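Hypothesis: this fold can be encoded by more than one sequence.
Test: take the structure tokens below, design a sequence, compare later.
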């Protein structure tokens, strides 16, 4: 928790600290700790301070080593030459390529290390595989910032992943070489995904490829949407569930086989051998999954648990959970703000603390009951696991996605055991048989097994109110909710009552955040303009970029999007939008001088002008809109914007020199 506090402090700063200033406190506190090691009280205080300083130093060092240049604004057409890293060709969406940049003609250096480009049709990227070297004409933009002030920063997450620009191709790519032998692991994973998908039906094959090699590009958006509505979309992403299940399959299978050989099991520690083999299997699965950050986090935690088994320690304790979290935060400190990190450790912490609290009565019940009673006990354990995990992860789902799956507990009660006892064992067996080309019969069984989960998702997603849209929780409220959960799980006796105080404070802050919805939202020089009216997001045409509009809708918890018809809202180059509480916003795209209307807000995209002398309205010209990201005007007329909320940091366009 203290390491996370240091990382959070770094992200909260409005400016980037110098590297030496970020690392120096950790060195000084560590030196003081060594000097005061004979004083218990001082040791405790300094150890806490060292954890905070270590988190701060770790994220500052990570940013220094991992970061990449960012394009500071929308470019003209540039010619990018580079090697293909990833290919995403989802059936119902525009295909995307990830490129490692070698040269960018028309763009002043420094160039981004990696970029992500979208293309018009799948035909333009047909035949391209990781490792191929291409040249492509494209328009580049900075990675997208937060949709609203205080919202999760997607651009920062991309930046820590090495991506310094996104954009779209204006022409088909030109292949320079096919990259034979250059694609490495990425090319192998792409081939395996194709092999798996071709051996099965389209939907089941795409899901199987996602579960086996971590490539989700083939999954139709409709499938992802219904899994998300049912609350089981986490199954599609290789994480702790999958790596833990795969390691468990290897652990118990190998232990059973070795135990069957009586002489071996009597003479040697077969459980430890099986645990060591499970670590290797989990590591191999992590590599096959593409070494994504969520998979790396899951492997670290799984490995720590299995090492505890080898060391004859209780495998799952809150202490081991804390050690795993500390290791991950020091190695990949940026993961603190990722939804996967919070959800993973929240669910694991709740499960460990919850079962620790009921361990004694459950053990007593197990000792006193028969076969049917033990079966009921197993079902009770599954039910309790679902409830604990759902409750623990709900604040993160609300904070990051503004959504809550009403039937998620029910869906997970079926989907998770089915995945653990049938789907994952079949995947492990298929993976072992693939080098010999004998995986066909296993994949034939895997398809229907996945189909059962997909059918379950479809049924639950069709239920009334399956997915509830709620206003997203801010970071401050989320921190208070996390503190409430930690107080409940970690403290004993009356100290647990402190969880109620944190919970009340978190809910109160969340309620205050959503009490006053924005009166007007403006994105990047007026490219998108919207307001909240009658429980819906009302946007002026063309309501683009769509990603931004959807993010506004999601963050504000609005289930309805209404795009006003151009014929109703616009006349010539001027459009009007009625605002809640009276008044209207006017957006004027004309470059030539014209009379400025008197309105609550006037947005001028192509010229500067002042408001009429007798008009109390607000006029926003290009100089007041440029570089502010999303501009929010609240009910009191106060202005805030995402650029100011982000500060001047290396992942923001303002940090980098303008394109020449």
């Amino acid at each position: 928790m203290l390491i996370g506090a240091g990382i959070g402090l770094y992200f909260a700063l409005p400016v980037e600290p110098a590297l030496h200033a970020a690392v120096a406190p950790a060195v000084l506190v560590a030196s003081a700790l060594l000097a005061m090691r004979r004083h218990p009280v001082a040791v405790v205080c300094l150890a806490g301070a060292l954890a905070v300083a270590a988190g701060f130093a770790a994220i500052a060092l990570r940013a220094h080593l991992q970061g990449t240049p960012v394009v500071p604004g929308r470019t003209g057409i540039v010619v990018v030459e580079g090697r293909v890293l990833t290919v995403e060709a989802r059936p119902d969406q525009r295909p995307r390529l990830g490129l490692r940049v070698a040269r960018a003609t028309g763009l002043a250096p420094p160039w981004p290390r990696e970029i992500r480009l979208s293309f018009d049709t799948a035909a333009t990227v047909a035949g391209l595989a990781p490792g191929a070297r291409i040249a492509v004409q494209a328009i580049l933009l900075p990675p997208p910032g937060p949709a609203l002030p205080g919202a999760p920063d997607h651009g920062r997450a991309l930046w820590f992943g090495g991506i310094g620009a996104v954009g779209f191709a204006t022409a088909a790519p030109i292949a320079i070489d096919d990259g034979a032998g250059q694609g490495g692991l990425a090319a192998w994973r792409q081939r395996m995904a194709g092999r798996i998908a071709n051996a099965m039906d389209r939907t089941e094959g795409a899901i199987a490829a996602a579960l086996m090699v971590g490539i989700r590009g083939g999954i139709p958006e409709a499938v992802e949407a219904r899994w998300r509505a049912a609350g089981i979309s986490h199954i599609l992403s290789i994480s702790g569930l999958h790596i833990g299940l795969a390691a468990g399959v290897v652990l118990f299978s190998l232990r059973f086989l070795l135990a069957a050989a009586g002489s071996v099991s009597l003479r040697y520690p077969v459980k430890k051998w099986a645990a060591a083999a499970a670590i290797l299997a989990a590591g191999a699965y992590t590599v096959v999954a593409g070494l994504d950050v969520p998979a790396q986090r899951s492997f670290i935690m799984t490995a720590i648990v299995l090492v505890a088994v080898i060391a004859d320690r209780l495998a799952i304790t809150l202490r081991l959970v804390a050690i795993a979290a500390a290791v991950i935060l020091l190695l990949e400190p940026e993961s603190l703000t990722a939804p996967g990190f919070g959800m993973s450790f929240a669910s694991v912490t709740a499960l460990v603390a919850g079962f620790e609290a009921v361990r004694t009565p459950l053990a007593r019940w197990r000792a006193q009951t028969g076969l049917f009673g033990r079966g009921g006990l197993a079902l009770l354990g599954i039910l309790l696991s679902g409830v604990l995990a759902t409750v623990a992860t709900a604040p993160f789902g609300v904070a990051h996605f503004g959504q809550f799956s009403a039937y998620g507990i029910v869906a997970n009660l079926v989907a998770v055991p089915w995945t653990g006892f049938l789907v994952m064992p079949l995947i492990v067996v298929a993976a072992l048989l693939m080098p010999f080309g004998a995986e066909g019969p296993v994949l034939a069984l895997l398809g229907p097994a996945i189909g059962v989960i997909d059918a379950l998702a479809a049924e639950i997603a069709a239920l009334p109110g399956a997915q509830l849209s709620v206003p997203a929780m801010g970071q401050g409220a989320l921190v208070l909710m996390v503190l409430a959960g930690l107080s409940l799980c970690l403290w004993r006796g009356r100290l647990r009552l402190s969880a109620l105080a944190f919970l009340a404070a978190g809910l109160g802050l969340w309620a205050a955040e959503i009490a006053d919805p924005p009166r007007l939202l403006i994105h990047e020089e007026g490219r998108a303009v919207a307001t909240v009216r009658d429980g819906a997001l009302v946007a002026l045409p063309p309501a683009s970029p769509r990603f931004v509009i959807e993010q506004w809708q999601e963050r504000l918890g609005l289930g309805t999007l209404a795009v006003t018809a151009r014929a109703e809202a616009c006349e010539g180059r001027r459009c009007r939008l009625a605002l809640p509480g009276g008044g209207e916003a006017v957006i004027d795209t004309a470059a030539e001088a014209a009379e400025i209307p008197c309105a609550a807000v006037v947005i001028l995209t192509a010229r500067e002008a002042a408001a009429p002398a007798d008009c109390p309205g607000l006029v926003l010209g290009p100089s007041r809109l440029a570089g502010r990201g999303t501009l929010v005007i609240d009910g009191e007329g106060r202005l805030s914007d995402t650029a100011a909320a982000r500060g001047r940091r290396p992942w923001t366009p303002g940090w980098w020199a303008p394109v020449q």
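Residues 366 and 374 are 6 Å apart (CA to CA). The radius of gyration is 27 Å.
Hypothesis status: open.
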